[in-house]
Amino acid sequence: MKEGQEVIVVDNFFTGRKQNVEHWIGHENFEMIHHDIVHPLYIEVDEIYHLASPASPPHYMQNPVKTIKTNTIGTINILGLARRVNAKILLASTSEVYGDPEIHPQPESYWGHVNPIGPRACYDEGKRISETLTYAYAQQENMHVRVARIFNTYGPRMHMNDGRVVSNFILQALKSEVITIYGSGEQTRSFQYVTDLVDGLVLLMNSNYTQPVNLGNPVEHTINQFAEIIKDLLGGNSKIVHLAEVQDDPQRRKPDISRAKKYLNWEPKVSLNIGLQKTVTYFREELRKFKHSQRNKFVDEH
Ligand SMILES: O=C(O)[C@H]1O[C@H](OP(=O)(O)OP(=O)(O)OC[C@H]2O[C@@H](n3ccc(=O)[nH]c3=O)[C@H](O)[C@@H]2O)[C@H](O)[C@@H](O)[C@@H]1O
Questions:
Q1: In 3D, which of 118, 38, 25 has the Cα closest to residue 78?
Q2: Relative to the CA of 216, which ligand 1 atom is closest?
Q3: Which member of 32, 82, 178, 213 has the lowest number of beta carbons within 10 Å of its beta carbon?
Q4: Torsions phi, psi for 218 (to 5 deg)
């Protein structure tokens, strides 16, 4: 990104209807953007980060049709905008394009193992068609595209109701509630801190590399181990319980990041321990604010 460049960052549900885009993703390189994006003829845009779509499984499953619309119609709309204004576009794809992988760790050359009619399909297939659309536009319209396959990412500014494992376990431990493991807990994930991801996205956008690139931290843990890590970090007396397993839950996930190392000179810098400490500090403060507002509400009502 160069000084004076205009960048659009599109986040959350987005289908290209008239709306103000007013988002930022917590990084000094991104400015708050105010654009009425249905009138692209009047704006100059150099780069577009297409981050639209819910990403937490309970959120994207809650309204699967809307998730599909965002990833199909929304992606077509934003690709059309990028074509009209001649902007470079980066698509935020996901490790979920690999589904429940049969190859471990997962390189970008792996085509994946996705159930096309399962509960995760709205997201997995939605992101797969987003990638297909991106490369079809690139080929047909001579566009400059970048595709990042993002693996499990966490950090401050996650929503308290996000529902993914990192925020769930931290909040449960902070509130001394039970820590909820879905299924046996032997499934694995590899967790990446948000600033590492943002560095990788910016490097990818600025590179000349056009094929998909995995962005994730390759340090892998079972969910059982992760629950113990959170308990050790926070102390407290939370008990661990095992609930029913989630349908089609990927059993092993770990990125092969050789491509990112080779073409972007990128690898994660923030250890799980440091990243979790920062995230815990954030959620402690969120809980304090929440309790404070609940107390005030009680006083106001009585
Ligand atoms: O980051 C990724 O690569 C992709 O995968 C994530 O999906 P998932 O890995 O299933 O994310 P979580 O909901 O955080 O679950 C991780 C694991 O922890 C388990 N889990 C989750 C929450 C919980 O309270 N307890 C629990 O055991 C899940 O069953 C799963 O095995 C999300 O879909 C996306 O953020 C993303 O695109």
A1: 38
A2: 3
A3: 32
A4: -75, 0
Domains by residue range for the chain, with CATH: 7-291 (3.40.50.720)
The candidate with the shortest Cα–Cα distance to 199, out of 221, 215, 181, is 215
40 pLDDT more than 90: no
Binding pocket residue ranges, ligand 1, CB within 6 Å: 55-57, 94-96, 151-153, 164-165, 168, 180-182, 187, 189, 223, 246, 249
For residue 44, how many C-alpha atoms fall within 13 Å in the half-sphere facing its CB?
Answer: 3
Q: Which of 61, 152, 253 has most ligand 1 atoms within 8 Å of its beta carbon, as the pocket-test mutant?
A: 152
Q: What confidence score (pLDDT) does residue 11 get?
A: 59
pLDDT digits (tens, 9 = 90+) for 224-257: 999 999 999 999 789 999 999 999 999 999 999 9
pLDDT per residue as tens digits for the range 43-95: 578 999 999 999 999 999 999 999 999 999 999 999 999 999 999 999 999 99
Closest residue to atom 16 of ligand 1, CA basis = 165
Distance between CA atoms of 257 and 105, rounded to whole angstroms?
A: 9
The catalytic site residues sit at: 123
- In this predicted structure, what is the pLDDT of residue 5? 63
User: Which of 70, 189, 193 gets mutated to test ligand 1 (max ligand atoms within 8 A of its CB)?
Assistant: 189
Q: What are phi and psi of 27, to 5 degrees?
A: -145, 140
| Of the candidates 187, 205, 189, the residue with the CA atom closest to the CA atom of residue 51 | 205
pTM of this prediction? 0.89
In this predicted structure, the answer to whether residue 302 has a pLDDT above a threshold of 70 is: no
Of 47, 57, 38, which Cα lies nearest the Cα of 124?
57
What separation in angstroms does the CA of 212 have from each of 9, 72, 123, 145? 19, 18, 17, 10
